[in-house]
Amino acid sequence: MSTTALADRVMSLITSDQAVPHLRRYFGTSLPDRAAPFTGSRFEHLADGGDREPIAHTVTADDLIAVQTLSVRIPTRAALDLLEGDLGRRLSELLSDVPFDVDMVEVPAALLDEEGPAHAAWRVLRDQPGIGWVTAGKLLARKRPRLLPVYDQVVRCVLGRPKSFWLDLHGALRADHCALHHELTALRQAADLPATVSALRVCDVVLWMHHRTDHQRKICFRT
Questions:
Q1: For 185, how many CA atoms within 13 A lie in the half-sphere containing its CB?
Q2: Is the pTM of this model over 0.90?
Q3: Which pLDDT belongs to residue 219?
Q4: Measured between alpha carbons, how far is residue 211 from residues 63, 127, 133, 194, 204 in Å?
Q5: Which of 50, 77, 141, 207 would staple 150 via disulfide (CB 3.0–4.6 Å)?
């Protein structure tokens, strides 16, 4: 999928009639009786977030719990290594070269390409036994919620399985004077969400809520 096609696909979904209700349902800003928000609504807010300056470059126990709200789990051995071992120290070194206070739309593409520190951090995590690409991406999204997106099989499927998601999304956000980014921030406001929910997270939730039921029914091709 080209950057233009991805931008068109995302724009069509975030401007649909279901986008605001889906966000309100997910984050719990408008719920029917006895309903609860999705556990993922706590992902970026648990313990005041993973990108706070004192701990922005360090994986904490709160981060490991936060990713569980998105239905993944860091295996115990890898979790201990992240908290106390060489894996944690290596990841911290890489994260120190990845800004935590900017949105994806604001950075140069080079920061997100395969030679950059963000991809290096993702590969280090992905290659740990029992982690893989989805969980690696979710942990990095916890540490860099404005810069790196949550990305899983459902979102990949609804977007037509783009080959270079970070770069394609970056290009889509910057196209047409950042129209898509502005639409996402407007959507966040329309759904009564706080600014601590990043534009990337708004995008992820709308896409995921749109496709999750069909995906769970196994009508999609999966690998």
A1: 11
A2: yes
A3: 62
A4: 26, 28, 20, 24, 11
A5: 141
